[in-house]
Amino acid sequence: MQVHLNDLARLRIEGRPKGVTSVCSAHPIVLRAALRHGRQHESTVLIEATCNQVNHLGGYTGMTPNDFASLVGKIAAEEGCPEKLIILGGDHLGPNPWRDRPVEEAMAEAEKMVAAYLEAGFRKIHLDASMGCKGEPVALDDETTAHRAARLAAVAEASAKRAGGAMPVYVIGTEVPPPGGADHALTTIDPTAAAAALKTIEVHRRIFAEAGLGQAFERAIGLVVQPGVEFGNQNVVLYDRSKIDALKSVLTDDPQFVFEAHSTDYQGTRPLTALVEDGFPILKVGPELTFVLREALYALDVIASDLLPDYGQRPLYQAMEALMVDQPGNWSRHYHGTNAEMRWLRHYSLSDRIRYYWASAEAQEAVRRLCEALRGQIVPLPLLWQHMPAAQDFADAPLDPEQVLIWRVTKSLSDYHAACGVGKN
Fold first, then answer.
1. What angle do CA 138, 99, 347 make, to 5 degrees?
2. Tens of pLDDT, residues 265-313
3. Which pathway is this protein assigned to (predicted)?
């Protein structure tokens, strides 16, 4: 079922809550799984890119917003997913990638980035100017944050008008878990205080109005808060709705908004459903999707090793280990312990920092070799039961490895789809 972002607050008020899964990944297989799932269920496909991942200078993926939009459009056309179902979002749009520079320099880059996002067709915009730049505190006060967010919103409004089409909807607020999850064991996470959430809304509303952006603020639909969910390298803090009674009252006091929940990965259908029921209809997920993709790739790697004498012993695993050891920048600050502990964390941590390596030439070649080796092979049922039992339907028929990968990502997306259809009415 298609859900419009502008309807989320109304549906909550009417007692008919619906949610939207925000797919936060640039991996082509994850994107393909999301777009195929959307076509099959005629449901909204919200795909978001972050400021570090995709920006006007390329980001760590090497893609500009236009490049990313083109990639999504290409896969959508191949999958037959109608354009009307697809929403592109920009997450944490602000000076974060340039926060080591003086504020004016960082904000100038952020303005260029926001313009590039809007010109490329992104229409869900999370404004996040909460981080300090060179010489400033790490986290800024509400007033400063709101002034900078309004400055970026002015750029977004002008860019959207030039580009034509729908005007953007906005998400404000910045109280989120560490991007990609925490790097230490966690047991509990305190939800955002209701007073802090209300202050964020009040300050932004006032400053946007003073800047002549009152109409833009009327299109602010979401507030990022911490609902008390998180994942570390090897544990998950599940949603506990008993702790957010005060926070839920914010939506009664200001019914314009719904909450946006970050780091909902690994929660499962029941907690996700509770989040949607409780006013968190925008469920962001990223690392879980590439984690289960890696899970399927590694299972196929072992199956190929067991099935095909000439394939070798887990060459995909070996290639990824060599790559991550040779280029430790994406994991070394996040994984700690003995050499043995860091080795398994590199591959299996829930924060899934291995995802930063799949676009490399070495990883792509290893995946290509794996898929080529298994394509058309008959995998016996006992071998699938041993290494990937849930994939038993792929046994005893010519194998298409990419379909196995898409199936595994779709299993996770289905949990979100079930949660987002709360009430089915």
1. 85
2. 999 999 999 999 999 999 999 999 999 999 999 999 999 999 999 999 9
3. Carbohydrate metabolism
Residue among 326, 420, 422, 364 nearest 20 (CA): 420
Tell me: do 114 and 151 sit in the same domain. yes
Residue 214 maps to a domain: yes
Q: What is the CATH number of the domain that holds 373?
A: 1.10.400.20
160 φ/ψ angles, rounded to the nearest 5 degrees: -65, -40
CA distances in angstroms from 144 to 172, 241, 278, listed in the order given: 13, 32, 30
Angle at 131 between CA 127 and CA 135, to 5 degrees: 140
The predicted structure's pLDDT at residue 174: 86
Q: Which pLDDT score is estimated for 78?
A: 99
Residue found under tokens 């990937």 = 388
What pLDDT is attached to residue 379?
A: 98
Residue 16 contacts residue 425 (beta carbons within 8 Å): yes
Number of structural domains, the chain? Answer: 2
Q: CA 261, CA 290: separation in Å to the nearest integer?
A: 19
Residues 6 or more apart in contact with residue 12 via CB below 8 angstroms:
251, 258, 279, 281
Residues 88 and 125: their CA atoms lie apart, in Å, by: 9
Q: Which of 233, 228, 226, 227 is nearest to 185 (CA)?
A: 233
Residue-level length of the chain = 425
Distance CA 210, CA 154 (A): 12
Token reading at 404: 């196995």
Residues in the chain, pLDDT under 70: 176-185, 422-425
Distance separating alpha carbons of residues 296 and 299, to the nearest angstrom: 5
Q: What is the pTM of this model?
A: 0.96
- H/E segment holding residue 45: strand 45-50
Rounded to whole angstroms, what are the CA distances from 282 to 44, 242, 261, 324, 330? 12, 20, 6, 33, 28
**Structural domain of 345:** 290-400
